[in-house]
Amino acid sequence: MAQALLTLDFLDKAPATPEATPSANVRVSAATRTGRQRKLYIESYGCQMNFSDSEIVSSILFDEGFDTTDDLASADLVLLNTCSIREKAEQTVRMRLSQINSYKKRNPGLLVGVLGCMAERLKSKFLEEEKIVDLVVGPDAYRDLPQLISQVDGGQKGVNVLLSREETYADITPVRLNSNGVSAFISIMRGCDNMCSFCVVPFTRGRERSRDAHSIVQEARALVAQGYKEVTLLGQNVDSYKWAAADGSEHVNFAQLLERVALVSPELRVRFATSHPKDITDEVLHTMARYDNICKFIHLPAQSGNSRILALMNRTYDRPWYEERVHAIRRILGADCAISTDMIAGFCSETEAEHQDTLRLMDFVHYDMAYMFFYSERPGTLAARKLADDIPLEVKKRRLQEIIDLQQLHSARRNERAVGRVHQVLVENFSKRSKEHLSGRNSQNQVVVFPKQNFKKGDYVNVLVHSSTASTLLGEAV
Ligand code: SAH
Ligand code: SF4
Ligand code: F3S
Questions:
Q1: For the whole model, what pTM was predicted?
Q2: Which residue's alpha carbon is nearest to atom 14 within ligand 1?
Q3: What are the structural domains, with CATH classification, of the chain?
Q4: Which site among 18, 34, 189, 283 is 20 to 30 Å from 12 CA-CA?
Q5: Any known ligand binding at 348?
């Protein structure tokens, strides 16, 4: 199956380990050729939740007679699954729409739709602002796509941006779009009930709801049967996963769900994201410790190292609380558990000393990886309504650069520490540089490259690491 993956560098975002940067990617649907009549080209921006939703959308449209294509020029329907998290993310989509406009001039029958968070944020205003758009569909309305498309086929525009308190698409089997056949994502919940003051997600994704635990375990089983070796459980705040059977006979929290998925097969690696520092429990950490196949990697976004800024951000924890959670991880899982973070530089009213607190928190944790941004005000959020976006752009950028520089140092040290040790690697692909080498990740999510010998995709291989670069560990199978 042809596979296309286009990576763009986002200027406002600097991942310290480029291989592991889901949200810096734009993903293009791979081609499925099953002789269906119409061709869907879908491009996904933003986070893993969007990438995962595009697989649900493809599944819904497959049943409506659409194959996916990785070639925009041969598409009958183009969908952009969009992100609103920062201004830059929205600008990228607008630029893409103007490029697609030139295709549409040559091919007037082409239908163009926007899905996802920007569709939800702008609603029917999108149709006024971008004349080329025929369809605007929010994250909870994808089941309505067939109906909306026939409306557009009939010469009208189609809009559905209703948010739902129940929709989890639990019964839809996703079409795996950019899969390496080894790792897959499973959405376990949707929406977010936190109200971080900088964040647009609660507005674009609606209320938090958890998916039926049985359908999650079922999906993991089906993936194992197809030969998959790794699943990542996805949610904006996985630690608040909470599902109850309709008759009240069963209650499942995140630690219990994690255990159920880990028990599907000892050969299946289990990852999850994102953990919220206010909600991650010792019970989750003990569950991680009990199962070798639950990866020792926790994405625990701090956002800032200063308690006053954390309060303004409405993160509902302070610096001592965050440090205590890091201690708990070290106590229960040892130094081997990797921790990553998201940091925002230059939030409203942040002083130089408060920025230093963020750098000192980084020195304290020694993050293995980080996604780093400067603050971008989003319309409608608490911060946009109540706080002045008063840090000059040059200052935001300079502070961000200091955060990036420090993280690069920490990432390099962490890679050096991995040298001389044996790591269990799950092989995902050939190395980008050579077909004679394979590439995979260890439990801590570090990328490891080694000579292929007779190993193949999907194998677990013990690799003795002999050297490291800023982003990759190099070694030999032992
Ligand atoms: N649910 C996750 C994060 C989702 S958004 C969590 O709570 O951690 C991913 C990251 O984007 C956030 O962690 C934050 O660091 C960043 N982000 C969100 N809104 C932003 C904004 N307005 N400006 C800059 N960065 C932002
Ligand atoms: Fe946004 Fe906060 Fe929800 Fe994360 S937890 S999605 S940052 S509101
Ligand atoms: Fe994800 Fe962007 Fe929406 S980060 S939830 S696609 S705003």
A1: 0.92
A2: 342
A3: 26-160 (3.40.50.12160), 183-417 (3.80.30.20), 422-477 (2.40.50.140)
A4: 189
A5: no
